[in-house]
């Protein structure tokens, strides 16, 4: 999972208490090729520590910052719990926008917040989600899955799903899985095979071929529409 990978990285650096050791670890591949640059690495790091007044408390505490185009509810729940237990973890959502030839990023800070209750996910709760006016209750912190998107009608059985940036395609099934070369697979398992990653943000890397939008974008658009309608009422 995204947050646990970040924790493992932070833990791997937690025992470093000397600037030289950090330089060796961070710049290792570069230094191996350009050994004469070792002193430059130390100087750059010292300058950074001086500017941030952090030489005396060097690496005494690790801070984790997660940045992504979207987060699943389990990641936000875990990060919220860690925050409430004094682990310094932040989550930022980046949304790219293109205006003419310029590219902009809208940065949204999701965590930390003052109250974490809305972020916690009870994995043992199997009860049915409550409905309001025929629609299942949804929030931006508890993002709906593919089964609910099928129920909404924003995607349909038989739609073609494309792996982002690749030519690989799969046909969406009524249960939310995809049919690829005659074999049924979960969307996440299919994408993990394509990219060769141990974890993948399914809704960010699954593109709806007909609209050209990611499932995450389609979901966001629908939720924004519902929010607008409820506000007007």
Overview of the structural elements:
This protein is of the alpha+beta class. It has three domains: 2-51, no CATH class; 65-119, no CATH class; 131-232, SAND domain (Roll). Helices cover 39% and strands 21% of the residues. The protein is built from nine helices and eleven strands. The chain has helices spanning 2-13, 19-26, 28-33, 38-51, 73-84, 146-152, 187-195, 202-205, 215-232; strands at residues 64-68, 89-99, 102-111, 131-132, 135-136, 160-163, 169-172, 178-180, 183-185, 206-208, 213-214. Strands 9-8-7-6-10-11 form a six-stranded antiparallel sheet. The protein has a three-stranded mixed sheet with strand order 1-2-3. A two-stranded antiparallel ribbon has the order 4-5. Helix 2 (19-26) packs across helix 4 (38-51).
Strand content: 15-25%
The count of helical stretches stands at: 9
The CATH topology assignment of the largest domain is SAND domain
The residue fraction in helices comes out at 25-40%
Q: Into how many domains do the coordinates divide?
A: 3
Q: Report the strand count.
A: 11
Main β-sheet: number of strands, strand sense, barrel status? 6 strands, antiparallel
- Principal-axis shape equals globular
Strand order of the largest sheet: 9-8-7-6-10-11
Q: Briefly note the structural class of the backbone.
A: alpha+beta
Per CATH, the class of the largest domain reads: Alpha Beta
Mean pLDDT over the residues: 80
Order of helices and strands: HHHHEHEEEEHEEEEHHEEH
Just name the CATH architecture of the largest domain: Roll
Low-confidence stretches: 123-134
The CA-CA distance between the termini, in Å, is: 39 Å
**Could you tell me the radius of gyration in angstroms?**
22 Å
């Amino acid at each position: 999972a995204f947050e646990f990978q970040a924790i493992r990285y932070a833990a791997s650096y937690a025992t470093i208490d000397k600037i030289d050791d950090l330089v060796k670890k961070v710049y290792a591949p570069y230094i191996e090729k350009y050994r004469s640059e070792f002193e430059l690495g130390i100087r750059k790091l010292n300058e950074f520590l001086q500017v941030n007044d952090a030489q005396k408390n060097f690496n005494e505490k690790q801070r984790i910052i997660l940045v992504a185009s979207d987060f699943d509810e389990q990641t936000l729940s875990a990060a919220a719990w860690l925050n409430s237990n004094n682990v310094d973890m932040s989550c930022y959502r980046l949304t790219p926008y293109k205006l003419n030839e310029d590219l902009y990023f809208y940065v949204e800070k999701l965590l930390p917040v003052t109250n974490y209750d809305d972020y916690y996910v009870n994995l043992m709760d199997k009860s049915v989600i409550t409905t309001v006016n025929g629609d299942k209750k949804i929030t931006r912190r508890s993002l709906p899955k593919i089964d609910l998107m099928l129920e909404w009608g924003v995607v349909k059985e038989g739609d073609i799903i494309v792996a982002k940036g690749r030519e690989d395609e799969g046909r969406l099934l009524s249960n939310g899985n995809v049919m690829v070369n005659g074999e049924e697979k979960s969307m996440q398992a299919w994408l993990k095979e394509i990219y060769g990653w141990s974890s993948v943000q399914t809704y960010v890397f699954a593109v709806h071929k007909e609209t050209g939008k990611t499932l995450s974008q389609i979901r966001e658009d629908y939720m924004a529409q519902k929010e607008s309608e409820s506000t007007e009422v």
